[in-house]
Amino acid sequence: MRMVTKDDLDLDKLPGHIAIIMDGNGRWAKKQGLLRAAGHERGTRSVREVVEGCAQLGIPYLTLYAFSTENWNRPKLEVDTLMRLLVSSLKKEIKTLQKNDISLNTIGNINSLPKKAQSELEEVIKKTKNNKRLRLTLALSYGAREEVLNTVKEICLKVKNNIISVDEIDESCINKHLYTHDLPEVDLLIRTSGEQRVSNFLLWQIAYAEFYFTDVLWPDFTQAHLHDAIFNYQKRERRFGKTSEQLH
Ligand code: IPE
Ligand code: IPE
Ligand code: MG
Question: Would the pLDDT of 2 be above 80?
């Protein structure tokens, strides 16, 4: 079967916000008889592919799940490799971000990252902050339950200090206190590697997202696969609780 290309996509019906659970680096490496680190390394190529692919299509928001709160429980050697890879990728990719007019943003418990990673992130965020084409968000040491917990605590504190009243707590108030306060809801959630679960990613924000699962392992994921996911998304009817007849 012919692969979907960019020309097959309806540019008026692009998802405004794509989120990706980039999974399968370890299995990719194992298949090649390599160490898991090689899979993570190769995975950075796919990151570049989708970031550039989204920028070229004109997708305004892309959020990538790079490291979960649970991933801290992996062997120290693997965690260290991932953190080192983060720093080296940021150094290497700043030019690509500038060239494609992409701004960088993070969600998650950034303070828990190694100092070197924090300072590198800060620098890239600062340098790219005026870029307009695409907002790239990296979820790092991110857990949706932790995010919700922080949100509840912050709101409780404001109520306690009489900054807001209980009646003022509505959905928009919750949105404002999430890590994702300046991002729109997710339209399309992609997970690679064949796993069909959310793994503590963006729980609130995916309430009405379309899910796309593919068996492709993250290091093998290319722009063609991205186009395929978007093409599939464009064929769906998003009803948001209404009937199909109401929409037409
Ligand atoms: C995704 O690939 C990268 C991270 C979770 C950091 P994995 O490392 O989870 O790869 P698999 O799932 O073991 O193949
Ligand atoms: C989810 O992948 C986290 C990231 C992609 C960063 P995992 O490989 O950690 O998820 P589980 O453990 O298979 O659910
Ligand atoms: Mg995995």
Answer: no
